[in-house]
């Protein structure tokens, strides 16, 4: 039976984390059981998964980003005032302009991030911006 929930925490380096199910149960998670790129599994991301019993409690497997077939998953909902937001006009950046701008913001905000972490964060933000039509593909 498929279950759903959100990523509670996930360490892409060690490959371990946990999911909180929609039933408020915490379930262990390992990168080997992810269907998508591990850098997409950040806290708050909706997922679907199967559960099995292991020697250390419940363990998730066959973990996938939640979304309807053929559509990218919705990772976050920023505003319930979507109609108002669509009325506001703004400049649409190219992907390269967006990445250049966002890199500067990230480096200033959190200078201790590694280059790998910055690249992962940039990729995630670019996909998010593209899905919301904030940048050109």
From TrEMBL:
Gene3D superfamilies reported in the protein's UniProt record: Nucleic acid-binding proteins
SUPFAM superfamilies linked: Nucleic acid-binding proteins (SSF50249)
Record-linked InterPro entries: NA-bd_OB-fold
UniProt-recorded name of the protein: Cold shock domain-containing protein
């Amino acid at each position: 039976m498929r279950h759903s929930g959100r990523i509670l925490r996930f360490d892409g380096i060690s490959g371990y984390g946990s999911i909180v199910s929609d039933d408020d149960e915490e379930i262990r998670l390992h990168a080997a059981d992810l269907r998508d790129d591990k850098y997409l599994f950040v806290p708050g991301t909706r997922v679907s998964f199967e559960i099995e019993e292991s020697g250390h409690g419940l363990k998730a497997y066959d973990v996938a980003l939640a979304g309807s077939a053929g559509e990218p998953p919705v990772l976050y909902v920023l505003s319930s005032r979507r109609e108002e937001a669509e009325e506001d006009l703004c400049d649409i950046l190219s992907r390269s302009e967006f990445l250049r701008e966002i890199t500067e913001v990230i480096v200033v905000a959190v200078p201790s991030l590694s280059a790998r972490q910055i690249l992962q964060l940039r990729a995630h933000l670019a996909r998010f911006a593209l899905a919301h039509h904030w940048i050109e593909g």
